[in-house]
Structure formats: structure tokens, C-alpha cells
Amino acid sequence: MSKRIVRLIILALLPVLAGCSLLEPQPQLVIPTPPVATPELIIPNEAGQLVTDPVSDVVPTVDPAVESLITEVSQQQLMAYVRQLEGFGTRNAFSDTQSETFGIGAARRWIFNEFVRVGNGRLTVEFQDFPLSYNGYTAEQSNVVATLPGKGNGNGVLIIMGHYDNRPPDVTDGASRATGANDNASGIALLLETARVMSSRDWNQTIIFLATSAEEQGSFGARFYAENAFMEGKNIISALNYDAVGGRAGIPQHARLFAVDFLTSAHGALGRYYEYVGGLYLPTFPVVIYDALDREGRWGDHREFVRAGFPAIRLIESVEDPDLVNSNRDTWDLIDYTYLQRMAQLNVSVAANLAGGPHQPAPPIIAAMAEPGAYLLTWPVTPDASGYAISFRPVDSVYYPTFRFVKASNAGNVALTGLDPSVTYAVSIAALNERGLVSGFSTEQFIGPNAALINPSSVTVQQ
Q1: Closest CA to 216 of 147, 290, 135, 317
Q2: β-strand partners of 393
Q3: 3-state DSSP call for residue 184?
Q4: CA distance linking residue 393 with residue 376, whole number of Å
Q5: Residue 82 CB neighbours (<10 A)
Q6: Which BP terms in the Gene Ontology apply to this protein (predicted)?
Q7: Burial of 131 (0-12, 13-18, 19+ CB in 10 A)
């Protein structure tokens, strides 16, 4: 981990957000109460005995099976997807829907059929239709939703998304050419390639690949999906948004990650997990964290999942070229396909752990012990866990500290000593399986002298 870039850039989050096309002010974020998830199957620690400062050889490691999937990510496939999407001439939300070769209709039908082709018979693919009304223009839109059902006991849903629409300078111009290679054929290419390699295996959690429309007008497709998911009580444990991830020759070799209220929110916890797991599998392609919903004055589809109360983050290339944004110079031949391949591999590594790891644990019950700096943690032990990682993160720290580890046979009733009683901690646990895969971390709980002053600023991660 020492080789990873460690940098936190604090950005002031404007109360009025505009989007990637800088068109209109947006209402202030209002975070609703999340839906209640179905209780997970749990078993108690049979021993029930207190274990103090445990030591375990069950730790997060690189799983050879996941590493094999990462090597399957193909630059040639990614390039072919991007070139095909650019070849539709435009994917503007108000462009032709009847032509088989031009416009957004042809593009979404191709994406639908491509998900079917790469899905190895395991993907359920459907259109999600919704109306778009914008500045006096109306048009029927469709998200493309490809679902890889979970096969294990997990009841969580992982969303991997990107928008497939694009635009010329005039956001309502559906006739002019609009290439949109990096923004956002690159994100759709990443979705398709991830679906191709991950559809070859079974996963505990359900994975949904979501290609949205009408992002350029204000994330209307993502909003429609997220609001419906909230109303349906869908247990979305994470939403990963990939937008403009193609890179160019010469830019720094890292990804940018945006998560709002990073130190105290579920979105920050997801971003911290992403950075940690990505660093295990791709240590030479680090993730740089930004404490903000998005770039200043900009937006992305993850915003709608934040509004709906689901943990959501955005991934984007390390440096943008403003001269290419919404320009016909944004063409397939300017993308760095080695960079895009690494972005896709990063996504596969994180998605494979979230979807293939054990149940995300319930938050532990934490009690201070008589000895200063000693705490007692109790939690139910799930049958699919071989061990647990325990995080006592100083609340002002961006990254995870050195974990404490405990085997499942000793877990559920653990005392930890040697912590600093003057520090306020955010405490969470993650389950590990026998192959070293890491579940999502439990909702952070705050303990220490200033814990009562902390007001977590976002939705609680569903279990």
C-alpha cells in the first residue's frame, strides 16, 4: 500500500449542482429514509467466549480466481465497443429512434443485444422505458438493464452503471453528429466488458449493469431507476458510476473517485472500500479520493442514487481535457485503451469482492471497558465467514487503519486493547472468506470523546 498515491482533495460541495453539461441548477440533495432490507441468515458464535486481542491468518488476499478474471479484460474488446458506439453518429436523447444505424434508438438496441451476446446465457436483459420532457422537447427514453442474479444467500444488489447518451454543444440537437467516445462510450464499454468476464461465474450477490439515458439533460434515466428501486425496496448495497473513464496518452495513471461527505457517510465508506480493494489487486493503478459529490459545478448519474438513499460513488479518468467535452473531437482514436483496460480491471476486482465475498456483517455492539483504550465488540457471526477484519478508523482519517483480524471460530465476542482513549473512532467490521475475499464493511459507528458531536450525514448502509 505504500506505493499508492495518498491524497485527499477537499472540494466545497455547492448547494446547487449543475451537471456534466453545465445546463441548469439542481435542487438541494434530500436524503430519504432507506428501505428496510430482508434480514440475513446468521448464526451466533457457538463458543461465546470472550477473546482478547485475537490473531488470525485469515486476511484479505488476492484471490487467484478474481485475478484470472482481471487478466481476461481485453483492450481489443473495449476498443470495438467504443468504435461501435461512436459509429451511430449521435446518441443524443432527442435523436432518431427508428433507424438501425443512426441515433439513440440504434445505440440502445445494440447495447441490449450486446449484453445478451456477452452474458453467457446468464444475463436477463430488458428495457426500462420512461418519458423525457426537457425545455419544451419530449421524447421516450429507455435505460438498458442487464441483471446477473446472485446464487448465494446474499440479498444485496450491486449496481454498475454508465450513461450511453451523448450530445453536441446544443443539448437538444438530435440531428448533428456527436461522437461521445470518452463521454461516455468508454463507460458503456467498461460495463459490457465487465459483464462479459463476470458472467462466466456465479456470485453471491446480484449484479445489475445499468446503461442509462438522458444523463446529459440532467440524469433523468438514473433518477427514474433509483426512484423506482427505492419504492420497490431494492437492497442496493453499492452503486458504482463510470463516466469518462477512457484516458488519453500521457495522463497520470490513476483513477479519481468522488464520494460526498467522505469521512462520515455511507458513500465515503463505499469509496474507502473501493480504494482499499482496488489497491490489493492493482497496486500500480491507484485511486485518488475526492471528498465531493462530483467535480465543482458538475454532475453524474450516481447523484440520483445518493438522493434516493443508496451508497453511490463516481469513477472518472485522472485528468479531463475540457476541449474534448461535448465536442466532435472526442473520438475513439484518442482513448488510451491500456488506461481503459485498467479502469475495467479495477471495477472487476471491486465488484468481484462485493458480489463474491461473504455477507456484509451487521454493525457490532461496542462498549468501552474499564481499561482506557479497551473496547468490547459483539456481533452475530455468519456461516459464510472464515474471519473478520475490524477497523478502528480515526474519524478524521481518509483511509482504513491497520486492521485487527479474528477467525470466525473466535469471532462475535472480542475485546481489543491498546487504542487511544483520546481519539474518536469510526468502527466497522468486514467478513472474509477462505479465499481472502472481503465483504462490504458494516455501517460505521462512532465512539470516543467526540462521538456524540458527529452527525453522520448520509444514509445508513443496508445490511
Answers
A1: 135
A2: 426
A3: helix
A4: 16
A5: 27
A6: proteolysis
A7: exposed
Query: What CATH number does residue 429 fall under?
Result: 2.60.40.10
For residue 184, whether the previous peptide bond is cis, meaning omega lies within 30 degrees of 0, is yes
DSSP 259-299: ETTTTTSHHHHHHHHHHHHHHHH-TTS-EEEEESSSSTT--
Rg of the chain taking only CA atoms, in angstroms: 22
Can you tell me the distance from the alpha carbon of 130 to that of 220, in angstroms, rounded to the nearest whole number?
Answer: 9
CB 352 within 8 A of CB 274: no
Residue 29 host element (H or E): none
Helix (H, G, I), strand (E, B) or coil at 119: coil
Q: Which residue has the cell 483480524?
A: 405
What is the domain range of residue 385? 51-61+358-453
* Site of grid cell 474534448: 324
In a domain, 219, yes or no: yes
Look at residue 238 and tell me if it is in a domain.
yes
* Domain match, 150 and 56 both: no
- What stretch of H or E contains 140? strand 137-148
93 and 78 part of one domain? yes
452 three-class SS:
helix
What's the rounded Cα separation, in Å, for the pair 416 and 419?
A: 8
Q: What is the pLDDT of residue 202?
A: 94
Residues 6 or more apart whose CB falls under 8 angstroms from that of 49 comprise 413
One domain, residues 213 and 250: yes
Nearest CA to 180 out of 215, 145, 132 is that of: 215
Position 344: which residue type?
A
> Residue 324: which of 334, 338, 336 has the closest Cα?
334
Q: How many CB atoms lie within 10 A of CB 204?
A: 21
Cell of 166: 451523448
371 and 350 within one domain: no
Domain count, the chain: 2
Whether 213 and 94 map to the same domain: the answer is yes
Cell of 129: 422505458
Nearest partner of 226 among 461, 444, 443, 32, judged by Cα: 32
Q: Which pTM value belongs to this model?
A: 0.89
Q: Which pLDDT tens digit goes with each residue over 358-416?
A: 989 999 999 999 999 999 999 999 899 999 999 999 999 999 999 999 999 999 999 99
Listed in sequence order, the DSSP H helices in 119-234 are 186-198, 220-232
For 89, the enclosing helix (H) or strand (E) is none
pLDDT of residue 154: 66
Phi and psi torsions of 307, nearest 5° = -60, -35
